[in-house]
Design brief:
Layout (H helix, E strand, L loop, with lengths): L6 E5 L4 H12 L3 E6 L13 E5 L5 H15 L4 E4 L15 H29 L2 E6 L12 H21 L4 E8 L17 H9 L11 H12 L10 E4 L6
Parallel strand pairs: 1-2, 1-4, 2-3, 4-5, 5-6, 6-7
The structure holds nicotinamide-adenine-dinucleotide.
Length: about 250
């Protein structure tokens, strides 16, 4: 029996992980709705099952309008993958400004409140849904100088767990993925001011992964696909480490 086509929304769609998640979901035969500040990187994936929106996730009204448009068009929204985020360059706390702190909390945490709040009514209506947030292993295995980023990722995981218990009776599953250091453009942005990003990548990040390599965006896409699928129909409120053992 053919599996019904699902409708999956991905935020941070134009980023390294976002794009890999979308490619994977298109191969599964699903319809993907891609949201990012810019979606230029997705140009080579153009096809009927991919719909893109250039939007700031912090614009709550725009997000509500987009989700309404999607639900009206397809009559279903099966999955939300929160893959957006911004990094923090390693900085001693005395040098972190309130503006830095607020920006990290807005993009990495407030955005989750906005996208999740907007999607839940549609999932409740169909008594089915899977919400996945990409947090970070740094929430439980911190590095110096990343205090605001780490706090934002801890909040992301707690938010998911809180929603998992709240939404379970509606058959909406909510899970978190903790990637280890991953091979995307974001990685170099964690480098302290004045340090060499390429050297840090090899001497700090790769060295810190017991399995000996960076996480590939396709590793995350595979984990997302599992959590979206019926193979994970009894999995909620969990955090899946895709980190090469970095969290150990
Ligand atoms: N790369 C790593 O080493 C690493 C490790 C652990 C966790 N993560 C997390 O994984 C997720 C994906 O990261 P990535 O490596 O693909 O980074 P990336 O920088 O390639 O992608 C992030 C995307 O989020 C988008 N974005 C940022 N603010 C936005 C906003 N307000 N509205 C809409 N889109 C916005 C950016 O435009 C970008 O395309 C992030 O949450 C990140 O914190 C990354």
């Amino acid at each position: 029996m053919a599996v019904a086509q699902q409708v999956i929304i991905v935020t941070g769609a134009g980023g390294g992980m976002g794009k890999a998640i979308i490619e994977n979901q298109l191969v599964q035969g699903n319809i993907v709705i891609a949201l990012d500040l810019t979606v230029a990187s997705l140009a080579d994936l153009a096809q009927d099952s991919l719909q893109t929106y250039e939007v700031n996730i912090l614009q709550e009204e725009s997000i509500q309008e987009i989700f309404h448009e999607v639900y009206t068009k397809y009559g279903r929204i099966d999955g939300l993958v929160n893959a957006l985020g911004i990094a923090q360059a390693a900085t001693p706390i005395e040098e972190v400004t309130m503006a830095d702190w607020n920006r990290l909390m807005d993009v990495n945490v407030k955005s989750l409140f906005i996208s999740t709040k907007a999607i839940v009514p549609y999932m409740k209506e169909r008594k089915k849904g899977s919400i996945i947030t990409i947090a970070s292993v740094s929430a439980v295995r911190p590095r110096p100088g990343l205090q605001a980023y780490i706090a934002s990722k801890g909040a992301a995981e707690s938010f998911s767990r809180g929603l998992a218990i709240e939404l379970a009776t509606h058959q909406i599953r909510v899970n978190t993925i903790h990637p280890g250091p991953a091979d995307t453009q974001m990685l170099s942005q964690f480098t302290a001011d004045g340090a060499d990003a390429e050297q840090t990548k090899h001497n700090v990040f790769i060295q810190s992964v017991p399995l000996g390599r960076l996480v590939d965006p396709t590793d995350i896409a595979g984990a997302v696909n599992y959590l979206l699928s019926d193979a994970a129909s009894i999995v909620t409120g969990t955090t899946l480490h895709v980190d090469g053992g970095r969290g150990l």
